[in-house]
Structure formats: C-alpha cells, structure tokens
Amino acid sequence: MRGLDKKVALITGAAGGIGRALVKRFCEEGAHVIAADISESNLDSMLSELDQFKDSITPLAMDITDHDSVVTKVTAAAEKLSGIDVLVNNAGWDLAKQFVDSTPDFWEKWSIST
After folding, report:
1. Is residue 2 in some structural domain?
2. Among 2, 16, 24, 84, which is 20 to 30 Å from 104 by CA?
3. In whole numbers, what is the pLDDT of the chain averaged over residues?
4. pTM score > 0.85 for this model?
5. How many angstroms separate the CA atoms of 99 and 95, rounded?
6. Residue 22: which CATH number?
7. Does residue 1 sit within a domain?
8. Using an 8 Å Cβ cutoff, are 15 and 93 in contact?
9. pLDDT over 70 percentage in the chain
C-alpha cells in the first residue's frame, strides 16, 4: 500500500482484528484514519493499542445499519478532515453455520432488533 500519505481513509469495523490491522497499516503509510466501529469500548482499546498513531486516528462510534446516523457522522467527519479519499468496508456480522440451516429471522437480524 503506497500513495496514502496525507490521505483520509474511513475504515468500518475498525476495532476488530482485521480492522485494527488495517488502521495500523494505513497509519504507517501516512494516512489519517476515521476508525468506525459499533463498539466504543473496542475503539478505546484499539486507540490504546495504537497509541503511537493517536494523532492520525479519528474514532467514530456508529452502527453501519443506521443509515441516518451514518450520513450524519460521516458527513461531519468528512467536513472536519476536508473529505474522505479511501473507504474500506470491513464491518460485518455473521454466525458460523451452514447457509441452508439459516432462517429468514437470521437475515432480518437488524430490522427485527430496531
């Protein structure tokens, strides 16, 4: 990954294992990272772990399934940082089971819980 110096990257699912590695790598390349995750406590943990990059990370607690919240929070972050150059859609959820064993309720998980 080259050419990221002074770029702004938005990484969803930033506080998980893959997300943390992405945040770290983008910071190592000189990017400013908007680290978005549903878990504020996991974001805090990630920031502690990546303390050497604290000035290059903007934590953003948000649920990517809440469209209005995403629009509001991402717009505010983009305005603060003069835009977003890179988007990494890393967030996701799943349950380790065979697809044929899943139910419609499983696939409607977010609409049922809101």
Report:
1. no
2. 16
3. 89
4. no
5. 10
6. 3.40.50.720
7. no
8. no
9. 89
